[in-house]
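Many introductory courses stop at the sequence. We go one step further.
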Amino acid sequence: MSVDVLTRVVAEQIKPSIGSRVLNSKAELLSGELGPKLRALLEERGVLVFPKINFTDEEQIAFTKTMGTFAPEHRGGEEIHKITLDVKENPQSAEYLKGSLYWHIDGTMNSVPILASLLSCKVPATWGGNTGFCNTYAAYEALSDEDKAKYEAMRVAHSVWATVFYYEPEPSLAKLKGMQAIGENELPLVWKHASGRKSLVIGCTAHRVVNVPADESARVIVGLREWATQEEFSYSHEWSVGDLVIWDNTGTMHRAEAYDPKCNRMMHRTKLQGEEPFE
């Protein structure tokens, strides 16, 4: 396993195409001095793991701010968002979290998605409960030149209602209409970033390639998901109490992996405000 020392950032690669463990102390991370270098490493590696760093909620919020602009879950608030199926802690979570079990990018219904999410483990699952990640920069870069040219010309319709069929194959008409009322968003299949790099914009919200026959559209969406989530580009994080993981929402997909819904698994999330539109 290779170990890289970038000034004061100490990190080791998890896999060649995705993920690094950051080994700096809590004090070094909270100083704010490493923020720009960690941002650069995050874009390069897609996922950063801080093993058993054991941030308090206040420390996690403070650390988030060293990486960019804090994105509140609710207007005017700077608080931790609890990710759990425990209805006492989060009454709306059970329905909301059903879609999180499938590969996705956060914010495909927005023009500017969040930059990154930071997730810390407070109570791990009794079984399962890993979080999976895949590097959509690396997946794009490994395509053939012919496929790159083909996909760069495509645009895809994204919607929340499309995700319902992943976990509820026969929803009621009322539920479907309610989800469809949220609308849909047309995005490029290949995101051309300001940095010059390119990534794939896919996931469970993607339901139709624009101006492409339905059967071919399905093959494109499913085929690229299968390509991007193969072992070479993917990493599954097994949580320990105190772990913190950051992922680049602009260049990765993620999903929660199945776990006991009664185990009161508890994650605390903060987010970084988006800085770049999909277009």
